[in-house]
Amino acid sequence: MAVTVRIPTQLRELAGGASEVSADGDTVASVLAGLETAHPGFKERLFDDGGQLRRFVNVFVADEDIRFLDGVDTPVTEGQTVSIVPAVAGG
Amino acid sequence: MAHVHGLRCRECGREYDIAPIFTCEWCFGPLEVAYDYEAIAAATSREKIAAGPLSIWRYADLLPTDRNPAVDLGAGFTPLVRADRLAAELGLGELWVKNDTVNPTNSFKDRVTSVALSKALEFGFKVAACASTGNLANAVAAHAAHAGLRSFVFIPADLEQGKVVATAVYGGNVVAIDGNYDAVNRLCAELAGTYPWAFVNVNVRTYYAEGSKTLAFETAEQLGWEVPDHIVVPIASGSLLTKIRKGFDELFTVGLLDAEPQLRVSGAQAAGCSPVATAWLEESDTIKPVKPDTIAKSLAIGNPADGYFALDAVRQTGGGLAAVSDEEVVDAMLLLARTEGIFAETAGGVTIATLKRLAQEGIVRPDERVVVYVTGHGLKTLDAVVGRAEPTAVIAPTLDAFHEAFPPDTMQD
User: Fold this and answer.
1) ipTM rounded to 2 decimals
2) Which of B18, B215, B33 shows the shortest CA–CA distance to B111?
3) Nearest to B28 among A19, A87, A91 (CB)
4) CB contact under 8 A, B209 and A86
5) Alpha-carbon distance B163 to nearest alpha carbon in chain A (angstroms)
6) Helix axis angle, B109-123 to B135-147, nearest 10°
């Protein structure tokens, strides 16, 4: 299942400078695991030592925050976009 | 010359050079300005501050820009109003209202914007931008106009009309997004990676947030260089509360206070958007984002980036949090206006309503010197009180009509 992963500026170096890459997987967890396989280094940046997503990392599937869905178990379907976005303050 | 030696990640401590960056490249934690406090202590004094301009720039030694003040509409040095009538209503003792409704665009966002755009000019940016729930939009559009910068201001499309008009009037680009603030914010985070613009609350956020410290500096100076016992601050992203507390601590660090602050910090949220208050009430270490539904749109950030730090500040200092209903918010707006002559926006209603709750719960006490931060003007959110604030009488232009509405025997005092 191919999905598009949008990469924030801070992590583009790991993906050869790309702002978007294609990855395979049927859940957020498997997509991010696939990302790690294709571009090593993502895992330690996105997950803490306990294996949880770092608290200032936001992940969206089709524009919905995965914390409103099933977290990293949120399913993804063909053609969807997974966005990795740092937390932003202010209003 | 700014007394700054770099940026530091609040999560993992990694250090970075001064640049328009806002998150740690390693862990995505927020970056914070790291100051050379010894140099500031040597440079600053109460006398120097007293001789400075009547604006945030009197505290330039404690702000992170060399261009002091490059972009200045006179933000700051707002009144600290002794609120005895409100205190009596709430059963409190010494209560003060820091009235930030009287800034150039009528909210505290003028403080942060003045600092952010001064830093943006230092970095060479030509375009100012922001994601906003309204008040920041007003401030960025106005300060950009004053500085001759182009501006792009991104707001949720359902914002109060007063805030939209008070942004568009300055002639920049106002982009209304079909989505809530968190959606606007996310778009801006992505745009900030695409265009070389100074997004004041994204890529120059690290400097922007420092402007909030001036609320602490002014409060202490206005109290004769003393620190309140307890402050109540509204929480949107959590940054304001965090930075005000930091401001008081910094004053002690650089020798401007005689005693170490013993400050209790409480936070205010609306029930329709209370992720930080919920975590506090549930004694949870996780702040779960929410979909906001409240009339207090300037606090309607469902995913508060600095929420963890705000929660820490409340826990460490023994303060409290509350989540108040929209009805309590409107009642509190009217209470503040009726007792103290200060017309606050809905966020101010949230803050006063929270103060009331915390007073009832005994968390804010009558033996404390309390300062409550009112951050935006009520004319921006008129809809909230329409129907609750009306003429006392509508009469013909005759004495008889007046007497009929107000019988002379009821007019003794």
Assistant:
1) 0.83
2) B215
3) A87
4) no
5) 13
6) 40
Q: Are B272 and B294 in contact (CB under 8 A)?
A: yes
B290 CB-side CA count, 13 A: 22
Identify the pLDDT of residue A88.
Answer: 64
Q: What angle do CA A68, A71, A75 make, to 5 degrees?
A: 95
pLDDT digits (tens, 9 = 90+) for A55-90: 889 899 988 889 889 999 999 999 899 999 877 655
DSSP notation for A21-83: EEEE-SBHHHHHHHHHHHSTTHHHHHB-TTSSBPTTEEEEETTEEGGGTTGGG-B--TT-EEE
Closest CA relative to residue B209, chosen from B169, B167, B237, B176 = B237
8 Å CB contact of B131 and A65: no
pTM for this predicted structure: 0.93
Which pair of structure tokens corresponds to residue B275? 């992720």
Any residues with CB less than 8 A from the CB of B145 and at least 6 apart, and which?
Answer: B151, B170, B171, B172
Bridge partners (DSSP) listed for residue B95: B370
Q: Which member of A48, A85, A91 has the closest CB to residue B236?
A: A91
Chain B contact set for A64 (CB, 8 A): none
Q: Is the pLDDT of residue B72 over 80?
A: yes
Q: Do B136 and A54 touch (CB under 8 A)?
A: no
Q: Is A41 on the interface with B (CB under 8 A)?
A: no
